[in-house]
Amino acid sequence: MEVAEMFSCVHSCISIKYFLPGNSKTLITISNDKDLQRMIKFHENSSSIDVYVMVEEVVAPDVSNMPASRSSRTTLSEAGILADATPCVLDDDMDEISPRVLLDSTFDVPDDLANVDEHIVNVDGHIAMAPEIPLSMSLPLSGSSEEKHMKAAQQWQNNITGVGQRFNSVNDFRDALRKYSIAHQFAFKYKKNDSHRVTVRCKAEGCPWRIHASRLSTTQLICIKKMNPMHTCEGSVVTTGHQATRSWVAGVIKEKLKVSPNYKPKDIVTDIKEQYGVQLNYFQAWRGKEIAKEQLQGSYKEAYGQLPYFCEQIMETNPGSLATFTTKPDSSFHRLFVSFHASLYGFQQGCRPLLFLGSVPLKSKYQGTLLAATAPDGDDDVFPVAFAVVDMVSDDSWLWFLQQLKAALTTCHGLTIVADREKGLKESISNVFQDDSVYHAYCLRFLSEQLIRDLKGQFSHEVKRLIIDDFYAAAYAPRPEGFQKCIESIKSISLEAYNWVIESEPLHWANAFFPGARYNHMTSNFGEMFYSWASEAHELPITQMVDTIRGKIMELINNRRLASNHWLTRLTPFREERLEKESIKVCALQVFNSGPTGNKFEVRGDTIEVVDINNYDCSCKGWQLTGLPCCHAIAVIGCLGRDPYDYCARYFTCESYRLTYSESVHPIPSEEKPLQKEFSQSIVTVTPPPTRRPPGRPPTKKLGMVEANKRQLQCSRCKCTGHNKSTCKERNTMHC
Q1: C-beta separation of 699 from 713 below 8 A
Q2: Quick check: 660 and 377 in contact, CB under 8 A?
Q3: Integer Cα distance of 222 and 570 in angstroms
Q4: Closest C-alpha to 391, from 339, 333, 337, 338
Q5: For 393-441, how does the pLDDT look when each residue is reduced to its tens digit (9 = 90+)?
């Protein structure tokens, strides 16, 4: 203000800038007192500072029609001066700075930096420091970030026009008032604020600005009855976010959030500061985002209340599906199970009797976990069978999920379930399927992680990698002698690891001993694609999340059905390729009939194998493990003049693949919840689970397998892993 008065121009049209020491290319703007102190701090070792005062041309505003506010306080005389002002031009050697620099002045640095606010711009073309009058640089300068940031708020400058203006409701009036104060950058305080009247005054002491609005009789309309539009308050512009409520923030960001669902609170803070000149804190932005999400997506709480109706809708629109839920004694949500008819039919008609169980945490407002059962289709792609949302992962949750899964399936005979070797999960599988020939295959990845954790010896990173390599080789070995060879290799490295492998029940994970058919699928993380769907929709209310997953399944089934209609082979593309690779090896094999029955044959190549053509068996075990004839079997089939396709498992044919995707998942109409008397089942109230979010930022990366080759800390003192020399306990023992 003082500099503007000194050069007879409007303060809103000038900016003050300076160079950093040793830098003559980048000008730094002084926008407030902190910037001024920072400049003096940078130049504390200098005797003077060169300061550049710059001006921008603007059109003189029509002051008579402008509301009296801090952001528009300009006199007619100032407007005239501004119109006549002609900026000076620097010498040729300074033209890289700006063609509109008013002057090059000298800024003397005071000895006492603590008294910087008591110095002022003064005297004859030089900016000098003097203690007489306080210097205030807090008002927004043209070209500074504050004025540029206010452009988005200019649309609200006329939200309040004066006495007689009407609003549809008291909330509409409050919203207009809030936007008006942000546009004119002043803070207000409620004196009266209820459902039928609102009285507000300027928060600055002594400022006469005041407004009163009340309801018109017999209507809901709110009308401004009194208003004093004049501001006399001076001081720094209000840029803090106490006038920006959560609802206001939500309204501002809603459209962008619709386009960018991952809009982060820290980005909201930055954008609102740039666009409206309002400084929010992180939690104001976060709460505003939560309200905007609820406005766009619906209420989380109401979604739980919709569950009874939603489950009925699933079973009505998709006959043969199973959708059920349970609640706790306090009516809070407990579990939800969903399996669509198209998934159940496709699994039982076209897929191998092989299921993978897995789970993924949900980072929603009420957290929870998604449990899933997926299967491989004939082309070894993921086929979703069933899923559940539970409040927490526990033995009881898995037991309940498996019970619902068994109820949904018509038969479970010969089923193989690949899952972790957790005690509760192991017991749940055996208890639920105790009357069926169901096999539990342990997840090899889970076992290898546990093996590394349980090893207590001083093993280097390379040694652990060798142990895991031998462990995997033992699991894939088709015959007992191959398995024994691999674990003997482990024994030569570590007796502890060898004993662990023996005690880990190889019957459940080694190909050489497993009684079921797992088709060489050794890990339970087969359904990663399905889990990614849940991760993409985890922030939606529960009914919308389930419907999003339903839409993904519907799209998946339709796309694969259409793609398979163009296949001209008997097997799926992946299986055709595998069969062709085995057929190429046949030319190096010799076939001999081993008996008069003509059922068993001896095949010689690098090894000697016995093929039982009637029992679909080869001593190499490749045929049994994969479901496709191995090269030895293909050699025998060729000698008999038969077609190898006739000896492939039916699950790999295009016909079975098309059966898998023959049924469709139907849409669920987005109707409002009907009156409870219209429900076919008894009245059920579902409330959100009483779950609190854990403190801190949620993890952005899903926890995966602990790789065997990941480098671990190793102490150079005691040679143990898991710590370094500085935290070694041996050191304390030695000192004692």
Answers
A1: no
A2: yes
A3: 75
A4: 333
A5: 888 999 999 999 999 998 888 899 999 887 778 888 988 988 778 999 9
The amino acid sitting at 390 is: V
Q: Classify domain 301-443+540-554 by CATH number.
A: 3.30.420
Model's pTM, two decimal places?
Answer: 0.64
Tokens of residue 540, six digits: 């939606």
One-letter-per-residue 3-state SS of 578-605: HHHHHHHHHHHCEEEECCCCCCEEEEEC
Question: Could you tell me if 320 and 344 are in contact, meaning their C-beta atoms sit under 8 angstroms apart?
Answer: yes
Q: Do residues 478 and 620 lie in contact, with contact meaning Cβ atoms separated by under 8 Å?
A: yes
Measured distance CA(55)–CA(89) in Å, rounded: 11
Selection from 104, 76, 102 nearest residue 89 by Cα = 102
Residue partners of 283: CB distance under 8 A and separation at least 6: none
**The dihedral formed by the CA atoms of 67, 71, 74 and 80, expressed in degrees to the nearest 10:** -110
Query: What's the Cα-to-Cα distance from 502 to each of 474, 478, 481, rounded to whole Å?
Result: 11, 17, 15
Distance from the Cα of residue 550 to its chain's centroid = 20
The region, left, alpha or beta by phi > 0 then psi within -120 to 50, assigned to residue 665 is beta
Angular region, 481: left φ>0, alpha ψ -120 to 50, beta rest: alpha
The DSSP element (H or E) to which 635 belongs, if any, is: helix 631-639
Give dist(CA 550, CA 570) in Å, integer: 30
